[in-house]
Amino acid sequence: MELNEVREKYLAFCKKQGHTIIPSSSLVPENDPTTLFTGSGMQPLVPYLLGKNHPSGSRLADSQKCFRSGDIEEVGDNRHTTFFEMLGNWSLGDYFKKEQLPWFFEFLTKEIGLDPQRLYVTAFMGDEKNGLPKDSEATEIWQQLFAQVGVDAEVVEIGSEADGYIKGMSWGLPAGRQGRIFYYDAKKNWWSRAGVPENMPVGEPGGPDSEVFYEFTDVEHDSAWGEHCHPNCDCGRFLEIGNSVFMQYIKQASSTGSEQADDSFGLLPKLNVDFGGGLERIAAVSENSSDIFLVGPLWRIISELQKHTEFEYGSDPKITAAYRVIADHMRSACFLMADGVVPSNADRGYFLRRLIRRSVRYADKLNLPIGTLASVYAVVMQEYQKQYPELTVDHSDAIRAEEDKFRETLHRGMKEFTRFAGDGSISAKDAFQLVTTYGFPLELIIEEAGERGIKQIDTEGFKELLKQHQDLSRAGSEQKFKGGLADTSEKTTRLHTTHHLLLKALQIVLGPGVKQRGSNITQERLRIDFSWPEKMTEDQKREVERIVNEKIAEDLPVIRNEMAKEDAEKLGAEHEFGAKYPERVSVYSVGPKNATEENPQLDEVYSIEFCGGPHVTHTGELSESGTFKILKEEAVSAGIRRIRAVLE
Ligand code: SER
Fold it and tell me: How far does the centroid of ligand 1 lie from the alpha carbon of residue 38, in Å?
């Protein structure tokens, strides 16, 4: 079954069960300073999983574009990609396990036509120290579902992934029988954005999950992974195709301290379901193909590349891996560019640059002529434009420009390589510099060294350096995560409301043409990027501060309104440049003084913005944090200024 067909079938199936189909959010998260990219379907929905009402109701479904930068080095095998579409359905306090699991099973077996004999499922075995119970309800539902299609489904308490390699599919069962439903620990069957329960910051939602795996009976277990195979084994015999998260818990501050953690979870206001399924993987298993690169758009990108070289996909593992890296990386690059990312040395632009640079190196391995990579853009446009209209603008010139620029860097990198290799070895530091500054992937350094007869490469030391580097950036992003809007703490919420007051004040002082171009809010400070061509004068800054403080002193009501997108636009509500919104939207208005939820007096507001919240109910609350003050006003790029401000 083709990708587009699977997507259509899934959305139609969800619609039949009463879901509203919502558009995919951008790969660049809107109003979420906690992360660089949208990496899962639930990310844009966090405020609603935490209990806020969604304007489109309590049953939602979509196909969400995702990019996982952490997976760049994994790409090359038959199933890992950095970009993917995640099919999603959500219950926001509506249905729960006994609806979700049967629906997904029905979708796979009836709509896609998968043989239930090929399906294996997992459930959460519980976590005593955190007071989280075993999910026996999920296993009972699965047993009934398998029984209905005549499959005897045995339950195996496999425990951890490491246990799996030792115990395998038949552990604890009578001879000749094997498991179908497997219990694993929190490492495998607990989902939160921060991972296992211990790693979750206070205020983060999470819950036990139940995954479905497809078995490729023609793939032999590879004992390099352990003696026995099991659903979570990485040998490639089993492929995860969907995950139902029962999002019902929230991490709370433990009253007894960290050693006694069993009171560290509370219940969310409602029981939610967060389901995510890999579209490309489901399409691949519908054709019983264990190689997802052999189906759909990825295959058509590879076919296009093959026209320009004598090397054939599948002829040799290295050649095959090179094709996979290019097809994956270039597709990700196209989608990122379509969402406004440009190659640079920082943040999102850095990842885009890395994707293109890695592709250039692998293109050389395949003898692809210079400029071939840019031609992938046209294939991606043709494949995805119907679903993702943002792919109508052609960015192939920018890819070509980046390739040309990189070739100059590469030329210098090769000189460095020769210099480093002068003493017959490549040290950890040399390798690290080649990877981070010159964009050489490690495997190519090893190859290049091999060709030059250099035997000593300190790959272990290099990995250690890389890990230190990653730990540092992870610590940085955890800091961001804790302090970000998503933590919905009082301090952050107050600064979020202040942010609305500030945007309007800027428009009053500088002119109505001022538009927001980015935002980032932590517990300590707010940051706004806005369109304005020159440095603000001292007087302008003082006047903006005066207005914001005046609005705080007036104690204006802050009101959330739901309305048709069209009506919000007519009211002149501010919205993020380039963002896509559903038909019904959430809008926050500030003022006038006597506005109420029943009568928000939208013609008289001080400020009105498309926004998912959260906000304080009255601006007077902000004075409890202090007075509004601009700390810094500076340029970020041509025509864009940035303000950092605080309440103190
Ligand atoms: N949040 C879960 C995941 O990303 C399911 O959507 O796997």
Answer: 12
